[in-house]
Amino acid sequence: MENSISKEKICQPENLVYSKTPLMTCNPLSYCPGCGHGTAHRMIMEVIEELNMQAETIGVAPVGCSVLAYDFLDIDMQQAAHGRAPAVATGIKRLMPNKLVFTYQGDGDLAAIGTGETLHACNRGENICIFFVNNGIYGMTGGQMAPTTLPNMKTSTSPFGRDAASTGQPLKITELVAMLPGTSYVTRQSVHTPANVRKTKKAIEKAFQCQLEKKGLAFVEIVSNCNSGWKMTPLDSNKWMEENMFPFFPLGDIKVPK
Amino acid sequence: MAKVKGEIVINTERCKGCQLCVPVCQQHTIAMSKNLNSKGYQYATVVNDDCNGCTNCALICPDGVISVYRIKLQETN
Amino acid sequence: MKEIRLMKGNEAIAEGAIRAGCDGYFGYPITPQSEVLEYLMENRPEERTGMFVLQAESEIASIHMVYGGAACGKRVMTSSSSPGISLMQEGISFMAGTELPCLLLNVVRGGPGLGTIQPSQSDYFQAVKGGGHGDYKMIVLAPASVQEMYDFAKLGFELAFKYRIQVMILSDGAIGQMMEKVVLDEQLPRITDEEIKKKYPWATTGKTPDRERNIITSLDLDPVRQEKINIHLQEKFKKIAENEVRLEKLMCDDAEYLFVAYGSSARVCQKAMQLGRDKGIKVGLLRPITLFPFPYEEIKRLSSQVKGIQCVEMSAGQMIEDVKLGANGKVPVEHFGRLGGIIPAPDEVLNVLIKNFIKN
């Protein structure tokens, strides 16, 4: 019986249960096939749409793969110098305190060149959200070692594997910022399975809610893949991420809002 | 008992062929086409009528190319 | 009746900014300009006008906070001294690329490196010729008094928003630290968010349905478009060069010799000029107030009148390159400078002029 219902009948606007939010622009994403950036972008914009905050949101794009995030997100955006997004967001939020302000940063941007800006924005308890996409590598510049590159992991600047004795252990900056009293909500999520995508969206909702309630800085790390940099297929990279990244960067809330 | 029937619409021209949607579909409704889109990617395509509209594929799709529709069916024994 | 106060140069610019309707200040302490931040903290502008003040974790963070605020159409400023301004060059270049208006103060100290905390004019090249990467210029104002430190806050914001450009006030440790009387203006109102939306449609104020989203970025990977952006910037700088030259001339009408100096050096030269006139030497003073745009035309005009131009700078000779461009070989141009934080004395300067142009 049900099989007799035509596709046309089902594919009617009233039956639509999921499609890309209109807050994502029509521009094709510049990311590699299977890259988690697109999903992370979409979850942020879905939350902004559901909060009805498009007209009140100002985003800050970093330097890195997501430098062009403003091409994909249909909100007012500023592009920041490498690592400086938390300072830029501070300038915005302190002078426009009623706006919803967020930064979107990668691991090189946030945890290497921008460590100072990140820690101090967190420590001041800037009432902003930081979305931190950690794929353990510099994607845009061609797969160089990042502060979050795992020990022995091969990159173009650690071609024989990261030598932790010489270059240090991967920086757990998320655990670090959770120690600071200025952060209200600190969590680590991923977007590599539908269940994790749903959890990440909830985390983003919670982060924005913290900002709306002026609770202090909300920090959401999204552990993601870089299949081009890791030189794997998208499916293999997600599997590798589960097996290798998650033991070092375990998922879950690190600090929950009071 | 109510049953559901789903349908997905894939914007195949925007699909980058990453295949992430294939294993997340419990109904094995999605497979990769042998054909290429104009960007040269093998795109995702629907291969059976078993979609239940769970939205897994659309959620996991980094490029947001999948729209999901769902209706409730009344069992008519 | 006008309000008159005895103030330090650094305090005067802080007060000038508050009264000019400044929305925000982000800065980091460094000698000899820390009084700017101290004065702002002490005077609670948040209560007076709603102006926001924050001590940032570094000069780098400060300039990028300025970037964020300026991109929202706000009147934002920072201040520092030479080593700190070097750190800010990244952000200044990004603001040049995004055409964001802002007010920057450099209370110059001697360098290179940590150098000294004494006054110097050795950052002329950095301020006037670019400083950061890329083809850009800032409007550079050179105050020679505490009153001008005060006045240039308001003028700086006006010019910054008129042209969507960064305005740097190139002061030095002497002007920043010394006290003089200052005539204060009435408090100007701060701009409202509604006015920003109307006057600065480029600002990121939140995307409303009646307009496209606003994007503040200096990135464009397409070389054809990037060249267009650069040409647009150069056209703007040209327009500024044509319209915004400011200078002061003293006793130039009958001058046979000319001092060219700015800021503290100009004050020294003013006294040297008086000493020279007492000796019957017809010497005048040209004081560039804008260093970009530089008063090339006036130098050119005076070059056909005077027998020699004596540049005086607290540097190894930086502004002199622009003076020579203006003189274009018509008249000898000589440099005199003291380095490392030493302010030359008026008689020292006059003797150099006499030795260079009269005794020989």
Sequence-ordered SSE layout with sheet pairings:
The complex is a heterotrimer of chains A (258), B (77) and C (360).
Chain A: H1 7-10, E1 16-18, H2 37-50, E2 57-61, E3 76-79, H3 85-95, E4 100-106, H4 107-113, H5 115-124, E5 129-134, E6 137-138, E7 144-145, H6 164-167, H7 173-178, E8 183-190, H8 194-212, E9 217-223, H9 227-230, H10 234-248, E10 252-255
Parallel strand pairs in A: 2-3, 2-4, 4-5, 5-9, 8-9
Antiparallel strand pairs in A: 6-7, 8-10
Helix pairs in contact in A: 2-8, 4-5
Chain B: E1 2-10, H1 21-24, E2 30-36, E3 42-46, H2 56-60, E4 66-74
Chain C: E1 3-8, H1 9-19, E2 24-27, H2 34-43, H3 45-48, E3 52-55, H4 59-70, E4 76-80, H5 82-98, E5 102-108, H6 124-128, E6 139-141, H7 146-163, E7 166-172, H8 173-177, E8 179-184, H9 193-199, E9 215-216, H10 223-243, E10 247-250, E11 257-260, H11 263-278, E12 283-288, E13 290-292, H12 296-303, E14 308-313, H13 319-327, E15 333-337, H14 346-359
Parallel strand pairs in C: 2-3, 2-4, 4-5, 5-7, 6-7, 11-12, 11-14, 14-15
Antiparallel strand pairs in C: 1-8, 6-13, 10-12
Based on DSSP secondary structure assignment, what is the total number of beta strands of chain B? 4
Largest interface (CB within 8 Å) is between: A-B, 39 and 35 residues
Termini of chain C, distance in Å?
53 Å
Proportion of residues in β-strands of chain B: 35-45%
Tags for this model:
heterotrimer, A: 258 residues, alpha/beta, Rossmann fold, seven-stranded mixed sheet, two-stranded antiparallel sheet, 10 helices, 19% strand, globular, C: 360 residues, 2 domains, five-stranded mixed sheet, 14 helices
What do you see in this structure?
The complex is a heterotrimer of chains A (258), B (77) and C (360). Helices cover 36% and strands 19% of the residues of chain A. By secondary structure, chain A is α/β, with parallel strands linked by helices. Chain A has one domain (30-255): Rossmann fold (3-Layer(aba) Sandwich), CATH 3.40.50.970. A seven-stranded mixed beta sheet of chain A has the order 3-2-4-5-9-8-10, sandwiched between helices. Chain A has a two-stranded antiparallel sheet with strand order 6-7. In chain A, strand 8 (183-190), helix 8 and strand 9 form a beta-alpha-beta unit. In chain A, helix 2 (37-50) packs across helix 8 and helix 4 packs across helix 5. Chain A is globular and about 60 Å long. Chain B has one domain: Alpha-Beta Plaits, CATH 3.30.70.20. In chain B, the strands form two sheets. Chain B has a two-stranded antiparallel sheet. Chain B has a two-stranded antiparallel ribbon with strand order 2-3. The longest helix of chain B is centred in the last third of the chain and has 5 residues, at 56-60. The model of chain B has no long low-confidence stretch (mean pLDDT 94). With 360 residues, chain C is an alpha/beta fold. Chain C is built from 14 helices and 15 strands. In chain C, the strands form three sheets. A seven-stranded mixed beta sheet of chain C has the order 3-2-4-5-7-6-13, with helices on both faces. Chain A binds chain C through residues 54-58, 60-61, 67-68, 70, 73-81, 84, 87-92, 94-96, 99, 116-117, 120, and chain C through 23-24, 26, 52, 54, 56-58, 60-62, 64-72, 74, 76, 90-91, 94, 98, 193, 204-209, 213-219.
